[in-house]
Amino acid sequence: MDEFDLTGKTAVVTGGSRGIGRGIVHGLADAGADVAPLSRSTDDVEQVAAEVRNRGRESCVVTADVADGEDVARAFDAVRDELGPLDVVVNNAGINPDAALGTPERVDDEAFDHVLDVNLGGAFTCARVAAEDLADRGGSLVNVASVGGLVGLPRQHPYVASKHGLVGLTKSLALDWAPDVRVNCVAPGYVATDLTADLVENDELAASVRERTPLDRFAEPREIAAPVAFLAGAAASYITGGVLAVDGGWTAR
Ligand code: NAP
Questions:
Q1: Which residue has its alpha carbon closest to ligand 1 atom 3?
Q2: How far out from the chain centre does Cα 155 lie?
Q3: Number of structural domains, the chain?
Q4: Closest C-alpha to 187, from 157, 154, 165, 158
Q5: Whose CA is nearest to atom 9 of ligand 1?
Q6: How many A from CA of 78 to the centre of ligand 1?
Q7: Exposure of 143 in the CB half-sphere (CA atoms within 13 A)
Q8: Does 208 reside within a domain?
Q9: What is the per-residue pLDDT across 8-56, written as a single tens digit (0 to 9) for each?
Q10: Residues with catalytic annotation?
Q11: Is 213 among the domain residues?
Q12: Ligand 1: lining residues by beta carbon, under 6 Å
């Protein structure tokens, strides 16, 4: 089906240097897009940009902290200069540093604000900076939320608040930007990446995640990338404001 082909599209994937984001970069490139992975680490971005080129697509090496609006504007300009105007933006960059802190009383304002600034503020900034391109080109924005954007999770309060916010942002941007730009999000369950390394490596915790997940395992990044590539392109042309759980059945319970 041609609707799954992203040939000729230019995409930016924030947090594209590792984990799920790297999987999304590979997935979009395999579907035909030129893709810029964006994160704060030049070495990692260089590596993933090379992986895109090895797949026969164009890429570029641009870094930014998504919590810094000026940095994001400069970076998106640099991507436009190298690859052309943007058709697809994937807001994937995200952090969850407070899971280890335990009870909400131990999360101070600074820690709370930092997570919100990256996970939610960063996504809004990238959306705003790309808005004109996306509108001109009938583009698509895909946000990477979490099951923590759909249900509560203990001991991850800033993260869960940010991901519920991201689901809300997805729906409200979809309303404001229709019919020119489609805006959707995926809500992954547990995926084996650096972010979940503590969980994956702890036998007891890993077993509890598997037990809670009907498909009985963690996801691989590629299994999040395919739904993102679907939402990014014409195959999802009548979907906007959507929230697609990619969670092995976690939220079906
Ligand atoms: P990860 O392996 O820790 O990778 C995070 C990526 O985001 C890296 O490329 C990192 O690169 C980048 N990043 C972090 N802070 C950034 C910032 N301020 N500015 C720009 N880039 C930044 O995480 P992951 O597991 O792949 O998670 C990716 C997304 O999926 C996140 O939004 C996460 O909440 C979501 N998610 C993950 C899971 C899971 O189980 N892993 C489940 C549900 C949802 P630098 O550090 O070099 O900047």
A1: 195
A2: 22
A3: 1
A4: 165
A5: 15
A6: 22
A7: 35
A8: no
A9: 999 999 999 999 999 999 999 999 999 999 999 999 999 999 999 999 9
A10: 159
A11: no
A12: 14-15, 17-21, 39-41, 44, 65-67, 92-95, 118, 144, 146, 188, 190-191, 193-196
